[in-house]
Specification:
three-stranded antiparallel beta sheet, single chain, alpha/beta, seven-stranded mixed beta sheet, Aspartate Aminotransferase, domain 1, Aspartate Aminotransferase, domain 2, 2 domains
């Protein structure tokens, strides 16, 4: 934090970047230690056990049958999306996104010299929906050849329904738009919420690509590994030509197998804790800061807080939170101009830390 943000200090509470303040599953750490004890960290490749662990997880958690031959490894979902854009689209092509959305989407589109096409989400008192009429119009434009779907959505926290996913998929398929679905938050759901991989709804189609990873679920972003599900053989060929052989870290391979084979109980305990933190924050804000609009997200551990009733511009609000409350959140405009007046807060931390941060925010705004 102190390297990335010049305005923070050692006492600033971090609620910004999307990783957790919880230790990884014990089985995962044990697998890393066991692999390290083999002493050699040479080039490594995924074996059958690795692919089996992923396939079994998808079946258990999502009733999704995937072919191990369709799993491709990348160092992360963001690099994978960049590689997919580079290999499957041409310069100048339009790539559809739904702002406010995870800000690397916009950055990657601009970096690869594609055209950003925004199908803005519709905010109705804190609950977001999709403007399908606008999406269909933009998908019909032959210049627009790819859509990036964030599912569950970061930062607004929507877990899209099967009906919504069907409509998105149908619109893309009918108009020849490649659908790339970032589902890295797919395990992080509220009690009672159900995530459906969009590709599962279209078993006979092969132009939907799903980006997944164990790193968000098990707090292991530093291991830099993700699993990209590509069914289309022509897409697979282009991916291989672009990236060459997959040589992931041996520690990441060992950790992923252990997480998917032995980490489910840890995950279930985590989800209860996240539910409790969000319920606590909801009560706290209603009592202490009712001017802030907040809807508990259906997925992720990220909350989307609307401070717009205070009347501050985004720069003023950011200054108050950092300089006066001494907390670091993510400013809403990072996710597009549609995020003006919002802040994203990461609640995947001990409740005592969350409470301290909320107290600081309340005190700063009530001065």
């Amino acid at each position: 934090m102190q390297i990335m943000e010049q305005d923070v200090n050692k006492d600033t509470l971090p609620f910004w970047i999307a990783d957790m303040d919880f230790s990884c599953p014990p089985a995962m750490l044990a697998a890393i230690k066991d692999r390290a004890d083999r002493l050699i960290m040479g080039y490594s490749m995924a074996d059958g056990e690795y692919h089996e662990a992923i396939c079994n997880w998808m079946e258990r958690r999502f009733s999704w049958n995937i072919n191990s031959e369709d799993i491709f490894i990348s160092s992360g979902v963001v690099p994978a999306i960049k590689d997919l854009i580079l290999t499957l689209t041409n310069q100048g092509d339009g790539v559809i996104i739904q702002r406010p959305v995870y800000y690397p989407f916009s950055a990657i589109i601009n970096l690869t010299r594609r055209t950003l096409v925004n199908n803005a989400l519709v905010n109705s008192d804190g609950r977001y929906s999709i403007d399908f009429q606008d999406l269909e119009q933009k998908a019909k434009d032959p210049v627009n050849t790819m859509m990036l779907l964030c599912s569950p959505h970061n930062p607004v926290g929507r877990v899209w329904t099967d009906e919504e996913l069907q409509r998105i998929g149908n619109i893309c398929l009918e108009n020849g738009v490649i659908l790339v679905s970032d589902e890295i938050h797919f395990d992080l759901l509220r009690t009672g919420a159900n995530h459906t991989p969009v590709a599962r709804l279209f078993p006979g189609q092969n132009s939907i690509i799903t980006c997944t990873a164990p790193t968000k679920t098990f707090n292991a972003a530093g291991l830099q590994i993700s699993n990209i599900i590509i069914k289309n053989k022509a897409f697979q060929k282009k991916w291989k030509q672009h990236l060459g052989p997959e040589l992931p870290s041996p520690l990441a391979l060992a950790a992923t197998k252990a997480a998917y084979n032995e980490g489910e109980e840890w995950l279930e305990q985590l989800l209860v804790y996240l539910d409790d933190n969000l319920a606590f924050m909801d009560r706290y804000l209603k009592n202490k800061l009712p001017e802030v609009q907040f809807v508990i997200p259906q997925g992720t551990y990220l909350a989307w807080l609307d401070f717009s009733t205070y009347g501050y511009n985004d720069r003023e609000l950011g200054r108050i939170l950092i300089k006066e409350a001494n907390v670091l959140l993510e400013g809403g405009t990072m996710f597009g101009p549609e995020g003006s007046g919002f802040q994203r807060i990461n609640i995947a931390c001990p409740k005592t830390v969350l409470e301290q941060g909320l107290k600081r925010i309340v005190a700063a705004l009530h001065r």
